[in-house]
């Protein structure tokens, strides 16, 4: 097949997922290149654990992070290729995002979408400033989690439509792999096959058989796990890392959730509402949590994508026509339940934790966008034509935002370390307050005394006298920390801002006879 013929074939429904994978590689590579070496905070943790595993220090790696599969993959990639851990992480992100892009359009095709739906879905999927613009360039577990979770969703939908055991096995293996990256995948492994009971064309006995086959991998894993405990009676659940964490969270939320909410509501009522409104504290707290979760989901899925989903709710016919619609619906509900339990467990939820819900939103949005496009081609449907133009403009704006070069201010920490390396003498010691700064400085082995408590301990213990420079963060929201250092070391000799409210400050620690500052001025 010639190159023009092959390129043309990518537009066919049968091979459209190859086009999606190729575009995924291009977009992810562009996003990674845009970061210019900046690494996220969690990434330093995963790489530190991977460095232990690469050196055969298994206990130290697991003690540092006790759900270590992603770090193990990083370590294996590093040992096999010799590439730096960060480079391995970015290569994995590109490959996994290509798999995610392909799986996403295959899900649309399995749900009954034609080429117009898959084209709309690819735009909807890539035009997410959060998922694609923010998370893809990071060193995080989400890349593998997304890839295997989306492939598992496609496999279960395929099993739902065909009742072929090979797809039940593919479902079990892929969703288990997703759980190895993020423990939340266990909720999908256990509960998503319940969607098989909503089939109308099969008898109850057939549904039970399909449900059992969908859980075959889970059954084998449970037997192996039970065998491990029987062989080693001294083994405790805590020895298996975070395997039982979802169960513990569920138990905590149901047993202690009411008391925790009351305690938080009391604080909310006392400090925020005051005496005359404190009886409304609990409803106010719940509404705040609901708003926060909704805001996170919309931000992750994309505003245009969420508007499309909202519009599709008025056209429920779109849902009824989807093949394996119950699988998509239960997937959405499980993802949402995961978010609720995570939020109630520690009153904290990162944007990327809402990604399964965002994917479900984007699937429905793709069908709605394709429907709007078909209406757009009909001159008689003026309202639909206007709606399509508004949404497509919004998505185009999101896509541009996603692909824009990264803010130069994001590399302020890298610039601070580079300046420090260029201006200090070889024998001079530098104290960096975070693991990320030490990572940039190539002093990653020392992961103690991090953040502000480490800086405070440095002064309290007198160890500051052993340093020649202090490179620390001075966020504007904590002026007392900056004042504490300034009282002892004077003004910083250099400052590096990110253009917002974060900055890195460089201080010279004066020693008798050698307190001579580098030639740069403060800016």
Biggest sheet, strands in spatial order? 1-2-4-3
DSSP helix fraction: 55-70%
Distance between the termini: 60 Å
Order of helices and strands: HHHHHHHHHHHHHHHHHHHHHEHHEHEE
Main beta sheet: 4 strands, mixed
Averaged pLDDT: 87
Topology:
Elements: H1 3-9, H2 16-35, H3 41-54, H4 58-64, H5 69-81, H6 85-110, H7 115-126, H8 129-135, H9 142-162, H10 165-181, H11 185-191, H12 204-214, H13 216-231, H14 245-273, H15 281-301, H16 303-312, H17 317-320, H18 325-346, H19 355-376, H20 382-403, H21 412-423, E1 430-432, H22 435-441, H23 451-460, E2 469-473, H24 479-489, E3 494-497, E4 503-508
Parallel strand pairs: 1-2
Antiparallel strand pairs: 2-4, 3-4
Notes on the protein architecture:
This protein has 523 residues and is mainly α. Helices cover 67% and strands 3% of the residues. The chain has 24 helices and four strands. Strands 1-2-4-3 form a four-stranded mixed sheet, with helices on both faces. A hairpin with a 5-residue loop joins strand 3 and strand 4. Helix 14 packs across helix 15 (281-301) and helix 15 (281-301) packs across helix 19 (355-376).
């Amino acid at each position: 097949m010639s190159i023009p013929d092959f390129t043309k074939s990518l537009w066919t429904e049968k091979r459209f997922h190859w086009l999606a994978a190729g575009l995924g590689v291009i977009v992810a590579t562009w996003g990674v290149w845009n970061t210019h070496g900046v690494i996220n905070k969690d990434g330093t943790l995963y790489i530190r654990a991977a460095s232990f595993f690469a050196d055969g220090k298994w206990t130290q790696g697991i003690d540092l992070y006790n759900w270590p599969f992603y770090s193990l993959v990083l370590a294996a990639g590093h040992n096999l290729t010799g590439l730096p851990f960060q480079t391995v992480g970015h290569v994995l992100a590109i490959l996994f995002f290509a798999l995610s892009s392909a799986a996403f359009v295959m899900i649309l095709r399995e749900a009954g979408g034609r080429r117009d739906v898959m084209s709309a879905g690819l735009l909807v999927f890539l035009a997410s400033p959060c998922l694609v613009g923010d998370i893809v360039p990071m060193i995080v577990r989400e890349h593998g989690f997304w890839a295997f979770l989306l492939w598992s969703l496609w496999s279960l939908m395929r099993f739902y439509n065909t009742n072929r055991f090979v797809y039940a096995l593919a479902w079990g293996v892929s969703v288990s792999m997703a759980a190895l990256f993020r423990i939340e995948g266990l909720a999908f492994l256990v509960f998503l096959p319940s969607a098989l009971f909503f089939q109308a064309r099969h008898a109850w006995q057939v549904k039970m058989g399909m449900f059992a086959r969908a859980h075959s991998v889970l059954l084998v894993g449970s037997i192996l796990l039970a065998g491990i405990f029987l062989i080693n009676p001294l083994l405790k659940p805590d020895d298996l890392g975070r395997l039982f964490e979802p169960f513990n969270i569920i138990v905590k939320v149901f047993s202690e959730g009411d008391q925790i909410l009351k305690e938080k509501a009391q604080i909310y009522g006392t400090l925020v509402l005051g005496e005359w409104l404190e009886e409304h504290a609990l409803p106010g707290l719940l509404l705040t949590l609901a708003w926060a979760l909704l805001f996170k989901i919309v931000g992750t899925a994309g505003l245009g994508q969420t508007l499309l989903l909202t519009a599709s709710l008025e056209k429920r016919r779109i849902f009824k026509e989807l093949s394996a619609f119950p699988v998509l619906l239960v997937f959405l509900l499980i993802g949402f339940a995961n978010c609720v339990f995570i939020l109630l467990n520690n009153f904290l939820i990162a944007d990327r934790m809402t990604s399964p819900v965002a994917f479900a939103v984007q699937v429905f949005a793709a069908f709605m966008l394709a429907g709007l496009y078909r209406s757009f081609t009909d001159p008689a449907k003026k309202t639909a034509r206007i709606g399509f133009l508004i949404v497509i403009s919004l998505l185009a704006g999101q896509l541009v935002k996603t692909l824009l070069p990264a803010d130069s201010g994001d590399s302020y920490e890298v610039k601070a370390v580079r300046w420090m390396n260029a201006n200090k003498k070889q024998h001079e010691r530098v104290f960096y307050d975070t693991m990320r700064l030490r990572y940039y400085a190539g002093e990653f082995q020392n992961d103690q005394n991090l953040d502000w408590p480490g800086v405070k301990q440095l002064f309290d213990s007198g160890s500051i006298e052993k340093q020649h420079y202090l490179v620390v963060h001075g966020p504007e929201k904590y002026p007392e920390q900056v004042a504490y250092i300034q009282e002892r070391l004077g003004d910083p000799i250099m400052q590096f801002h990110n253009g917002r409210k974060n900055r890195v400050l460089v201080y010279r620690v004066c020693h008798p006879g050698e307190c001579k500052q580098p030639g740069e001025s403060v800016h």
